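Troubleshooting: if your tokenizer reports a length mismatch, compare your output against this known-good record of 241 residues.
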Amino acid sequence: MKIALTGKGGSGKTTIAAHLGRVLSESGNSVLLVDADASRNLATLLAHEDTTPINEMKDVVNQRARIEGGLVNLNPYVRDLIDKYAVDVSQNLRLLVIGGVEKAGMGCLCPENSMLRSLLRELVLKRDEIVIIDMEAGLEIMGRGTVKNVDTILVIAEPGYGSISVTKEILKFAKEMGVEARVVANKVRNKSDEKYLSEYFGPMQTIPADEGVRESSIKGQLLSEGDFYDSIVKLSKKITR
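Known-good structure output:
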């Protein structure tokens, strides 16, 4: 199963990705968490903040994705890099930091973005384990074939106009690509918050606001009980049916 999470920065997608990986790995599944966000928040949350993203490894990028004469290899070989640079987080759970989009443009044909696209393609199309990808706020870096083979795209939204605006754009893009995406409402404090989001996106999985999440994140820890954790368990069961 391949799961991509995206949403506005600060919506909580990284925290959800990390806990979802933990829940699924504790059920006996082999899980690979992938940090594909330039901010590297997932790596930081899992105490691997010093890990260099693959698309920032200049020697690797130059060897695999740069062709003599300044040209870019659009299909560099990356299969061996995944197992080489993935690190153990806990039993059945590993982390791979691949990096985010080079900001020269979403369609930038630079070697770094070529590496990123190839890694995403390999992770989605070729890997056997559960792969959970923490994306930036969008899916544009993923090619059409890659996006279409993701089993679930979770768009994390929180109460607030900024998050709703970004969520709408992501859902529009997913629809244009012919891919199903589901909205997950995060940081829901009460029925009013839930109603506010449902007016835009209809019924959805909700995850409650939990002060324990912020406190555990500061300590670099993941929760193993409480309302937030229980909601992640429910989400994991829903998407793996």
